[in-house]
Amino acid sequence: MARTKGRIERFTISIRKGDTVRVLSGRDAGKSGRVLSVNPRKNTLIVEHANIIKRHTRPNPAKNIKGGIVEKEAAVHASNVQIVCSGCNKPARIGHQTLPSGAKVRACSRCGATLDK
Ligand SMILES: [Zn+2]
């Protein structure tokens, strides 16, 4: 966790579980996938099919875990992904809008399409 003089540095992630994002850097740059989980404390998220690592696991019969090499997704930092807008189908930064009903929603900074339902 990023700490500065004992203070926890935290910037809010505007990406939610279930969003489609494009990975911008690293081995899987250019890939896009669904967000499987978000870790707001670490500002990281797990993106489907991106940043695959091989984990060598030991068999544990009590937990019904088979040993061997398991491929799984590793966390990606939130600054290395961008949300893919469903309106213009491009990676975009996230802006915010207030609906006439008063609800605050996330919106695409390119075309203004609402990203929340
Ligand atoms: Zn858009």
Overview of the structural elements:
- By secondary structure, this protein is mainly β.
- It folds into 2 domains: 3-84, SH3 type barrels, CATH 2.30.30.30; 93-117, no CATH class.
- The chain has strands at 3-4, 7-8, 20-23, 32-39, 44-47, 52-57, 68-73, 75-77, 81-84, 91-92, 94-98, 104-108.
- It has a 6-stranded antiparallel sheet with strand order 8-5-4-3-9-10, with no helix packed on it.
- A hairpin with a 6-residue loop joins strand 9 (81-84) and strand 10 (91-92).
- It is elongated.
- The model has no long low-confidence stretch (mean pLDDT 89).
- Bound molecules: zinc ion.
- Zinc ion binds next to loops.
- Zinc ion (ZN) binds at residues 85, 87-88, 92, 108, 110-111, 113.
Reading the helices and strands in chain order gives: EEEEEEEEEEEE
The overall pLDDT average reads: 89
Q: Which second-level CATH architecture of the largest domain applies? A: Roll
Broad structural category = mainly beta
Evaluate the radius of gyration.
17 Å
Give the strand order of the largest sheet, numbering strands 1, 2, ... along the chain.
8-5-4-3-9-10
DSSP helix count? 0
Q: Helicity level, as a percent range?
A: under 10%
Q: Could you say what the CATH topology of the largest domain is called?
A: SH3 type barrels
The main sheet comes to: 6 strands, antiparallel
Using the alpha-carbon principal axes, give the shape: elongated
